[in-house]
Design brief:
This protein is α+β, with helices and mostly antiparallel strands. The protein has five helices and three strands. It has one domain.
């Protein structure tokens, strides 16, 4: 849901919907995107992640250690990507500042 490619598509979709007077629903098939915007994220995780990203991209092995240390859930990861407008790619896993 929060992959970098999807974020670009949603911007185009938003513009198209506004031009034609359509509404839009963005969902992962289970929850609408608003669920993620409202989901709480532990401050310590967000702080550690953002501090680490200041030094460059974060790849899977290092992210996994950070995730496990803070006991993060998928939803909390998605929230951080959305809130901080991070760029996330899956193959290979890479998280970076936008």
């Amino acid at each position: 849901m929060v992959l970098a490619a999807n974020m670009v598509k949603w911007q185009v979709l938003r513009q198209l919907c506004e031009e034609h007077g359509y509404g839009r629903l963005i969902t992962d098939g289970k929850h609408p995107i608003q669920f993620y915007w409202q989901h709480p994220v532990p401050v310590a995780f967000a702080t550690d992640l953002m501090t680490r990203l200041q030094t460059g991209p974060l790849y899977w092995p290092e992210y996994r250690l950070l995730r496990d240390r803070h006991k993060m859930t998928w939803a909390q990861f998605a929230v951080v990507v959305l809130r901080y407008r991070l760029r996330w790619t899956l193959a290979p896993f890479c998280l970076r500042l936008n």
